[in-house]
Amino acid sequence: MFDNDRILNSLATVLGQDSELLCNPGSEGYDESNSSYFSALASALKPSFILRPKTIEQVQEVIRALGPLVLEGSCRIAIRGTGHTPFAGGANIQDGVTIDLRNFKGVVLDAEESTVKVGVGETWDKVYAELEKHGLTTAGARVNNVGVGGFILGGALSLISSRRGFSCDSVTEFQVVLAAGELVRASADEHPDLFIALKGGLNNFGVVTSVTMKTYNSGDVWGGVVYYQPEAFTDLFHRACDFARDELDEEVHVMCSAGYGFGHTALTCVMYHTQGQVNPPSLQRFTSVQPQIEQMSSLRTSTTLGFTEELAKFSSVGRRQYWATVTIKPDFDLIQTFYDKWQHVLPKVKDTEGFTFSFGFQPLTKSLLKHSQEAGGNAMDISPADGPLFIVLINPVWTNPADDNRIFGAIEDFLVELRQIASERGLLHRYIFANYAYWKDDVMAGYGADSIERMKAVSAKYDPEGLFQKGVPGGFKLPL
């Protein structure tokens, strides 16, 4: 049990009695914050206090005030950007202190318009809307209601990943409050070890308050979502494997999925050409697959903002949901087996109230991994020689808490089975995509032993007492 009186006294010393900054249970600010998570699983937790700092100095003072209590075991902290992490405990905490960073706004271009500084409380719709005024974009989320902070710290993928690598590879600077309350700027020139560790290293090293990212020229984008009947599976996923292995066009981005909802199963391919070429040769392998559900196709010319708004409409904000993932080599026979296993799981859970179930395959092409490496490295440490790969997304959504145990149990068994099958066939990769990872996964182990040792050295250097390892249990932690 945490010492709430001491916690409150420590917080009041630095934040005063301002109810907009220090929110107690039952207050308007507390209820707004705790009910605004992407997933109902996260909102179900009830922290003792929610802090909503408005300045970096307040974050520094909070970390200094709570640090001693955390290290003695009298307090635990959760760090929230916009709250998009779906599993309970990722960005919220029961009975501890949640630091809500949604007041950290701002989308600021530099004078040369070559970089943009973004507060971690922003969502990507605001970023794209501002950049498109200048004919620019950046390597942000594919769904525009996703927040900036956790997205970037997880590594992340964007529409332009084939040419630019992971989203974190476009970061030029992190502004971060360390365990001692010190504010530092981590870049290729300042604290370069911390800079690399933060690119995919999640909340293991400090409280990130802003990121600065490269901007890129941008205009029209062509693409959208194509829907197929289930009998198109063989053709579609053979072509998805061919795309992952052989496609050289770096201006395209593709996601192929199977989905269940409202008693029906369908296949989709989300596809984009980021230079606006209409139905380019690189995507004709997907636009020509039949049978399609043509009345549902959304292929068109739009902008990054327009397409990320479209995908945001598929989000199930506020419902019970989570993600799980596995990384594999592109192999059609393996994908067919995975699909068969997915169809075997469906009857066990599809009668639950409000149930939908997405099962997607997203390629990490060799060009993506090559450009990632050329950008200077990151915590994930994936060699281009390992590519191409598929990130497999498992995403159940449901309504009734009474169904929680049944769904968690079925999906956990499913995930174990997929990994076992892929491993037996020599097609499982160590990497676990942090932005989709299941809460029980050891994401850091998936980064490889060399990366773990480097990150542990960074943690020891910048957080020698282990505040962010011991006192911030949410997310995926480095081994102590």
From TrEMBL:
Coiled coil: none annotated. Belongs to the oxygen-dependent FAD-linked oxidoreductase family. The keyword Flavoprotein applies. This is Bifunctional solanapyrone synthase. The lineage of its organism: Eukaryota, Fungi, Dikarya, Ascomycota, Pezizomycotina. One of its GO terms (molecular function) is oxidoreductase activity. InterPro entries: FAD-bd_PCMH, FAD-bd_PCMH-like_sf, FAD-bd_PCMH_sub2, FAD-linked_Oxidoreductase, Oxid_FAD_bind_N. It comes from the Eukaryota. Keywords: FAD, Flavoprotein, Oxidoreductase. Residues 43-218 form the FAD-binding PCMH-type domain. The keyword Protein transport does not apply. Pfam families: FAD_binding_4.
